[in-house]
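Our consortium's second objective concerns turning raw sequence data into structural hypotheses that experimental partners can test. To show how far this objective has progressed, the report includes one record in full. It was chosen at random from the queue rather than selected for favorable results. The single chain below, 199 residues long, was entered without modification.
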Amino acid sequence: MKKSATPMRVRKPRADAQRNRERILEVAKQVFTRRGTEASMDEMARSAKIGPGTLYRHFPTRDDLLSAVYIHEVEKLAEAQRRLSAELPPLEALRAWLLVFVDYIAAKKIIAPALQAMAGGPSKVFNHSARLLQEAADSLAKRAIASQDLRPDADPIDMLRAIYGVSSASDSTDWPERARRIVDMLIQGSRPAKPGAGT
């Protein structure tokens, strides 16, 4: 009697391959931020302590790597939203997340212009990123509104635009410090009015 074939197992990504990918993305962000988006791919491989072949298996082109770094930064924001929501009161979670958003802007200012120049355009990358950002910001704001720590008409997207505007208004290297001050001003300005205030 003929034996039945052994079912094929679906192989999961190897743990070391996933770690390599994560390390490449973190190193690439640092190198791109320090040296610009034309930084050497070989330098990134050396900094990540992997061979060039491993780098190119994960990211065959510079555009692939740039896109992946950008998306990875946005996904970290989404993960930060989930973590902070679980760990902090609503308004504190929103404030902490907005401060993480300032760090994201620093990477975006370097990477986004290169993505704009990509063949075929970066629309898929930006659309995916915008959706994740909006979902994270909306979730945090809804919690803060439900706890009555934020006015019902507070718009988290307006907050993001205001913070990003600080980074765009000047090429000065101190913009992150000013953006962090804006975070506190936005939070304070979006609190519900105290009973009897202004009377």
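The partners drew two points from this record. The radius of gyration is 21 Å. The chain has two domains: 16-60, 62-189. Both points have been shared with the crystallography group to help prioritize constructs.
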